Request: fold
Amino acid sequence: MTASKRSGTPRPANRKRQLIDHSAQLFLQHGYPQVSMADIARAAGVTAPSLYRHFADKQSLLYAAVLAGVDDLQDCTDASLTVADGDPHTFLAAMCGSMARRQNASTLWRWTGTYLTPEQNREVVHGTRRVLSQWAELLFVDRNLADWEQRQLVWTLLSVVGSLSVHRARLSSARSVPELTAASERLVALTPSSAPPLRVPPHVGLPDDDRRTEILDAAARLFADRGYGPVTVVEIGAAVGITGPSVYKHFPSKAALLIEIGRRSGARLEVGVVTAYAAGKDDADILTLMVDSYVSTITSIPDLSVSFNNASALAGDPGARELVDVQRRYVSRWTALVSSLHGVSEAQAAVAVHAALSIVNDAVRVRRGVERSEFGSQMAYLMRGVLGL
Reply:
């Protein structure tokens, strides 16, 4: 008689998958660096030794969770293709519905890929490409698009259909699906090669102190390259030619650096808003300028992406609430404009807005095509399309 039968507690049919699912939820909610193996064991209701019998360390568990996300994406795709029976509209609606119900599918990798090895990332990319090639075969069979355009559109579509996982929607998942489907249909009708140049807003310098600015710039670059957790204050100091303790003369902690980077990115975004409202001819033109400003900001300096990607590291810090409020006020400007333009509620507009923002946020986070000179203009074009501009 087994121990589980003697105790009267049946062993779960797939304990390993349960551990993977719990870890994925914790990594997405709190950020990979902030989650320990003990946290995962407690969430799963097992002992730490039991967890280590399945996974050697946290990184191997992350890799397993990311691969499980790719498998989930394949499952969603297979089911949607079966339902669609060759109809693109039905496929998009089914995929949006599936992703709304299984929001971890494909999302975890976009947030934690920096903690995987190059070989592991390549395996994830190859698996995801296999899935997305099935999307392209159905969606673009009747369109004369270059291969690179098809690839860009399906990778962007992945960001759109997975965007419900990155924000607190004011609509339920079920009620968000029609809005997400409409945004997806607008996206796949686009032609990336026809993207016009960015209307880059004039540069406006922000007041700063030279040494503090040097430290912030160095910290932002290091956080962008390696993530917030692994970078030390000593490394930040070395990047500007000072000792680690000297950094504390300007900033009381590493968290204070991240908060200030967030404030700085928020100030730049606000400048973009003011410029758009001053130069825009109407709501559509204002929103177009705000899209171009956002893309210009996130692609020219690492601050915005760093602040967004590492927000979980500030959990419990009083400064985090300020940054969240700044982000919400900024996004609310977009939703108000979209609501006015299309005659929908702000809750409905928010689905399209977050889908659009996810396009460039994801591409910058995983560095997909960022080195290309036309990257910014194509990102803005795709975002405008999703917003119905």
In short: The longest helix spans residues 58-84.
